[in-house]
């Protein structure tokens, strides 16, 4: 079906939107922060493990996004999504197997880390996060259609991802890392939360009860404000409790991005054609706040 976007936008722009390079911050930041916490506590870092983990995480996110388009094509929810790789290629099964290839590459990389450590813990954690990621969008679960995506996202990109990264460096656990994982998990879920504001009509048509469908865009804008504020409150608690180095207060340099995001959504929450870009403001906030937190642990 030719939609307005595919008529107006050239294929090259649609493919860039389909690949969505900025979105890969969600793979890079949790591994970087978890490894930074490990460095702060051990003064050591295994760069081979870090590099392998980062590449593996990127492959896993590629699977996540390709398979999202595959499973969403089965429900018809992406009928107006010109940048869906299934709509762009017209070949669902090819995209299904391409996604599985990326998943296999990612899991192989993580399994290599476990082999190096002679310890299955890291690969077990990542396999669990991949299963939860599948349960968000794949049959018969499709938990995202019940509005559970943000909870799953916080758990996977927070405690699970950072614990796996921390364990890959130390083969141990850390309370400070767990607190840092809540910051990253929430900032990652804010990206997902923001992605729903412009999709209320299509989500309702497909029976997807996203948090924004459930609470409405006005309350959603208020929830976004409190969620965004919580990443700074948690960071302040980390420093006040002595779990975080004082340098992690660097995260507050990202506050202007947080204010820009929340003000933008407050103004345009009920205008889909405008609010659709807020996801990328959330990506910028996630990347900046996560990177500043990591730098604060490295210093
Ligand atoms: C694909 C995701 C959201 C897009 O969903 P939606 O269909 O609403 O978007 P479109 O409108 O663009 O179609 C992300 C969903 C995230 C999921 C809840 C949790 C995924 C967990 C990962 C597999 C964990 C990876 C950990 C890695 C860093 C080691
Ligand atoms: O395409 C998207 O909207 C998202 C893709 C993605 O990989 C991701 C990961 C973590 C949180 C949100 C999102 C997306 O919104």
UniProtKB/TrEMBL annotation:
<feature type="transmembrane region" description="Helical">
    <location>
        <begin position="178"/>
        <end position="198"/>
    </location>
</feature>
<comment type="function">
    <text>Involved in the synthesis of phylloquinone (vitamin K1). Catalyzes the transfer of a prenyl chain to 2-carboxy-1,4-naphthoquinone.</text>
</comment>
<dbReference type="GO" id="GO:0009234">
    <property type="term" value="P:menaquinone biosynthetic process"/>
</dbReference>
<keyword id="KW-0808">Transferase</keyword>
<keyword id="KW-0997">Cell inner membrane</keyword>
<dbReference type="InterPro" id="IPR011937">
    <property type="entry name" value="DHNA_phytyltransferase_MenA"/>
</dbReference>
<dbReference type="GO" id="GO:0005886">
    <property type="term" value="C:plasma membrane"/>
</dbReference>
<dbReference type="GO" id="GO:0042372">
    <property type="term" value="P:phylloquinone biosynthetic process"/>
</dbReference>
<comment type="similarity">
    <text>Belongs to the MenA family. Type 2 subfamily.</text>
</comment>
<keyword id="KW-1133">Transmembrane helix</keyword>
<feature type="transmembrane region" description="Helical">
    <location>
        <begin position="47"/>
        <end position="66"/>
    </location>
</feature>
<keyword id="KW-0472">Membrane</keyword>
<feature type="transmembrane region" description="Helical">
    <location>
        <begin position="231"/>
        <end position="259"/>
    </location>
</feature>
<dbReference type="InterPro" id="IPR026046">
    <property type="entry name" value="UBIAD1"/>
</dbReference>
<dbReference type="Pfam" id="PF01040">
    <property type="entry name" value="UbiA"/>
</dbReference>
<keyword id="KW-1003">Cell membrane</keyword>
<keyword id="KW-0812">Transmembrane</keyword>
<dbReference type="GO" id="GO:0004659">
    <property type="term" value="F:prenyltransferase activity"/>
</dbReference>
<dbReference type="InterPro" id="IPR000537">
    <property type="entry name" value="UbiA_prenyltransferase"/>
</dbReference>
<feature type="transmembrane region" description="Helical">
    <location>
        <begin position="120"/>
        <end position="137"/>
    </location>
</feature>
<feature type="transmembrane region" description="Helical">
    <location>
        <begin position="22"/>
        <end position="40"/>
    </location>
</feature>
<feature type="transmembrane region" description="Helical">
    <location>
        <begin position="94"/>
        <end position="113"/>
    </location>
</feature>
<feature type="transmembrane region" description="Helical">
    <location>
        <begin position="280"/>
        <end position="298"/>
    </location>
</feature>
<comment type="pathway">
    <text>Cofactor biosynthesis; phylloquinone biosynthesis.</text>
</comment>
<protein>
    <recommendedName>
        <fullName>2-carboxy-1,4-naphthoquinone phytyltransferase</fullName>
        <ecNumber>2.5.1.130</ecNumber>
    </recommendedName>
</protein>
<feature type="transmembrane region" description="Helical">
    <location>
        <begin position="143"/>
        <end position="166"/>
    </location>
</feature>
